[in-house]
Amino acid sequence: MPVNVDSTEVLIASLFMLALVSGLGFLFVKSSSRRQHRTKAEARMIKATIIDYFGRSGVDVSVGCVSLEGTRRYTVFIESEPMKRFRLSHIIESTLAEYIMQTCRLELDKIYWRFPIKEEVLRPVVPEEAPQNQGHADDADDQKRLRHEDKAEEPVDDYISEGLLLNQHLKNMHVTELPWEKFEEVKAGEAGKKTP
User: Fold this and answer.
1) Long-range pairs for 92-100 at CB < 8 Å and ≥24 separation?
2) Is the domain of 108 the same as that of 142?
3) Domain count, the chain
4) pTM, whole model, 2 decimals?
């Protein structure tokens, strides 16, 4: 038995389907927009919390925060001056992630550190022009003096200075092979010194 379908019924059904698809599309775009807005708000909250976290100990940091689309796990980028206290950054990362979880109820997926090099360190040493009547030996002395003066004016970073000093001592080390008996003798001597 053939079904008699009028063209107006087909038109009404197609308009209904079009309205339904349009409504679903609008809801999807609206929820996607809300999700993006929520993600941006959460990223701002994490950034402010991390800046406050380090600010309490007197460290100025700049923070970037991103999340992969569809997840609520955040990747954080922390930029700071090189400091001795950041040597064990894995410990800081775990306490920071725990603090963010307690404070913001959000999960940190990864933390990346960046310690930029100061521009003063990168600037080339350019000696002032020496007077024309001096010889080449005097020019070399002037250049050495100017380099020394430039180094004296730069701020000293204890952390970097300590690393450079350690590196100089490592170059002077000499390693030799000793017999096992000598090792046992030294070990026994140290054990005897420790006991009173």
Assistant:
1) 96/50, 96/53, 99/49, 99/53, 100/46, 100/49, 100/50
2) no
3) 2
4) 0.50
